Amino acid sequence: MKIEVLTLFPEFVEQVGRYGIVGRAVESGKLALTSRNFRDYSENKWRRVDDRPYGGGPGMVMNAGPVAKAIEAAKAAIGAKAKVVALSPQGEPLTQGWVKRLAAEEGLVVLCGRYEGIDERAQGLVDVELSLGDFVISGGELGAMVLVDAVARLIPGALGDEQSAENDSFSSGWLDHPHYTRPEDWQGERVPEVLLSGDHAAVRRWRLKRALGATWLKRPDLLDRVELDTEQAALLREFIAEQQRKDGR
After folding, report:
1. Is residue 12 within 8 Å of residue 42, measured between CB atoms?
2. What average pLDDT does this structure show over 74-96?
3. Phi and psi for 22 in degrees, rounded to 5?
4. What pLDDT digit, counting tens, does each position of 114-133 carry?
5. What band does 172 get if pLDDT is binned at 50, 70 and 90?
6. Which residue out of 24, 39, 89, 207 is catalytically annotated?
7. Nearest-10 crossing angle of helices 230-246, 200-218
8. Residue partners of 46: CB distance under 8 A and separation at least 6
9. Average predicted confidence (pLDDT) for the chain
10. Helix (H) or strand (E) holding 5
């Protein structure tokens, strides 16, 4: 997969391709990650790419010209069909569903805005705007790095075990189950016996119940978006009943 990030700070964004899963994907050739500086497409001798907003007000706005030229150059480099994604507080929430869709693309051009944003006349070149959440940060670079990391996890062969991505929180519509490792007893708390039993069917059932239960406790809104099958619904009812007994209700 090819991803090109358009930014005023290429060195900052390139860090994500040097470590961890993204770094391994880049090193193995499964991910081609490059960056492009908007300033290289500036239309003035000072390499400026921003100006004061018409109508007055604080801050600066990124010029449409350099943004458009950078997008055009990026598409020429990685493919005309590459989807242009802008990181913006006005965008749709970045969800695992979006990550899956973007991971299936031939290539991505990720646009990092700065200042008060990008001249509205360049927005027509953007295919989708995505946001990390309802808050504002200094620019789109951190969001781009998060997006690259999330997408890289879904590139075939990027993870040592493909089931790792399948079992991640949100991949099935709910949160992940609890995880345990050595020692079996830590400060008086033992690993649940079912995980030591070797009974794979029981382990699968326990993990599913605990995943659904964690979602019910922490993010019940997610359960409104999925249709549980008979087994899943029964396990969730079991968890809720156990929790209510534990709470003395």
Report:
1. no
2. 96
3. -65, -45
4. 988 999 999 999 999 999 99
5. confident
6. 89
7. 70
8. none
9. 93
10. strand 2-7
Active-site residue flag, 166: no
153 is catalytic: yes
Select which of 14, 72, 105, 116 is catalytic: 116
**Tokens (6 digits) for 197:** 């039993």
Whether 182 is a known active-site residue: answer no
At 107 the pLDDT is 97
- Among residues 149, 158, 174, 150, the alpha carbon closest in space to that of 235 is found at 174
173 closest CA partner among 139, 242, 224: 224
3-state secondary structure of 247: coil
Residue 162: pLDDT above 70? no
Tokens (6 digits) for 33: 């990650």
Q: What is the DSSP string of 94-154?
A: --HHHHHHHHTSSEEEEEE-BTT-B-GGGGGG-SEEEESSSS--SBSHHHHHHHHHHHHTT
Q: What is the pTM of this model?
A: 0.87
DSSP class of 177? P
SS3 breakdown of the chain: % helix, strand, coil, rounded to 5? 45, 20, 35
